[in-house]
Design brief:
With 223 residues, the protein is mostly beta strands. Among the domains are: 110 residues, Immunoglobulin-like, CATH 2.60.40.1230; 38 residues, no CATH class. Helices cover 14% and strands 47% of the residues. The protein has three helices and twelve strands, in the order H-H-E-E-E-E-E-E-E-E-E-E-E-E-H. The strands form four sheets. The chain has a four-stranded antiparallel sheet with strand order 3-4-8-6, with no helix packed on it. It has a four-stranded antiparallel sheet with strand order 7-5-9-10, with no helix packed on it. The protein has a two-stranded antiparallel ribbon with strand order 1-2. A hairpin with a 6-residue loop joins strand 1 and strand 2. It starts with 9 loop residues before the first helix and ends with a helix. InterPro entries: TRAPPC10/Trs130 (IPR045126). One of its GO terms (cellular component) is TRAPPII protein complex. It comes from Mesitornis unicolor. This is Trafficking protein particle complex subunit 10.
Length: 223
Amino acid sequence: MYLPSATESAVERENTTNKEVHRKNKEKQKQDNCMATVDQKVTIDCPWSIYSTIIALTFCIPFNAKHSLLSAGKRKYVQVCVQNLSELCFQLSDNSLKNSADYTDLQLVPLNLESQQVIYSKQSIFFVWELKWTKELPLSLQCLFSVSFCPATSEEQSFTLKPFIYEFQVENFFTLYHVKTEIFPPLGAEYCKTGSLCSLEVSITRLVDLSEVDRDEALTESD
């Protein structure tokens, strides 16, 4: 989102002291907004002038997103985490995850029950989809996540904002290992109790052979 700042007057452009005050006010405005910002500069060249005009633009990033591939047995899930970076509260709605490659035998089943959610300042919300396929999984999956948002306060709902979009790619669908853990009580005891020394058994079973890349990584990280 671009939040325009107040333009400088002619007096401020000529007076160095006023320029310093304007710079501090602009920094204070940026701190009050409390969003992650990206500063860009646009240079305008006019054919009838030897001087270039530089315009500073500040874009505020309200959200940050990241994804992960989850696996439970033979079931696989795609999880998208959306984090609110600002001090504002937003209303999220119409979240969707689409496969840009359009595989016909692959479905993304949403597990998010609520269609609208309020995401508060510095809060993270997770969206999960289950992968269901009929033949076999593709080698890679191009995903496009989108969610509509608007300020949660009634005074600011007049803003018309484009949906937040996050594109990512998921690869290596194969489950390499099956991990099972179990805690056993001490010898001769029926239950685990506080203060007693119990044993933890971890079983790791390799399900498929490692690829060349994974094998190289396993050798380098064996220590």
